Amino acid sequence: xxxxxxxxxGTSVGDPQRILHxxxxxxxxxxxxxxxxxxxxxxSGETDRLLALARSIAPRPDPRELDVLxxxxxxxxxxxxxxxxxxxxxxxxxxxxxxxxxxxxxAFNKARIRGVxxxxxxxxxxxxxxxxxxxxxxxxxxxxxxxxxxxxxxTTAVAVAAALKADECQIYTDVDGVYTTDPRVVPQARRLQRxxxxxxxxxxxxxxxxxxxxxVEFAGKYNVxxxxxxxxxxxxxxxxxxxxxxxxxxxxxxxAFSRDEAKLTIVGVPDEPGxxxxxxxxxxxxxxxxxxxxxNVGADGTTDFTFTVHRNEYERALELLQRVAADLRARDVSxxxxxxxxxxxxxxxxxxxxxxxxxxxxxxxxxxxxxMISTSEIKISVVVDEKYxxxxxxxxxxxxxxxxxxxxxxx
Length: 411
Ligand code: ASP
Ligand code: MG
Fold this sequence. Notes:
2 domains, VC0802-like, binds aspartic acid, eight-stranded mixed sheet, about 25% strand, 18 strands, single chain, alpha/beta, binds magnesium ion, globular, Carbamate kinase
């Protein structure tokens, strides 16, 4: 008998028909003898609708009241799913975040979970009932309702699974797993049977938006096996777990990319202590996140400094940089909001030389100019012009044979 936490996203509970379908799946799992906790999101579009409603009354709604409003989306689905389970003869009980006692800090709209009290849930599970928990919401130490940030139901599911020491946390969604890359760009992309937490974090943060990043961090920290599967299609999905020795055979697990990048360069600044700080200090103070950074010393002893930011922040970053440039008497400031980042991700990279050169060779063969490069233990990223994104990702997918199932025992 296993203890399984299943999470169903907004599309999976998007209408009454779908809620009944989810109920069938949950009941089937229980009929296998497992104990089941279900975490649900609001019906698709509902959180956006509630947000718009709040903004139609107050352009900048009070965060506390906004959370009271947003939390209603998930309260609807826990009740409807429990009704659906009852209807098919599967005893169930619904819980809001406050009823469970999903304790969070008081950062409304982006609260962090501090603890989950599982006592009541255990009682229900022992009595043979399915427990249905509202995702995305919690309660702070003063009893105020909080929400966990967009996509937060994934994190609720992992937190509940960790607290119950569940055997697996299954995230049901509208895709059937994690792919080697986005199948819309590379039709030959292959579903991965497994991937490590570390790799998944890179894939997710680089734009393969299957799971809320925080839920993956949480799962890695508490060692909760996570599985991503489709609500609408049977299959094994993708297991996200710890690295196992066999996985070393696989060098590259996937290719992530991000279209929302922009780069900025300040040219001809003095090459002396404190310059990097003077350039990036104001950017950090403005809460603009910097991703890649490259600094080069030119022949004349001055420095060129290039960094990337999210495309949404480009205008603001450019303005700040122009101010710094005047202070530092820089020769020039330039920028390009039409760049993208492509990254090879794989824990196997650690023990294999030559991956980077194969990557660069592949891009060269396609005539793609690399504008920036950065590497970490399990990732190599390049920045290229936007127009080369599809070509680059396809060429790399082919060069690293990601469409082929790795040899037996290797992933
Ligand atoms: N309903 C919330 C959202 O749309 C939480 C979630 O779906 O995970 O962001
Ligand atoms: Mg979601």
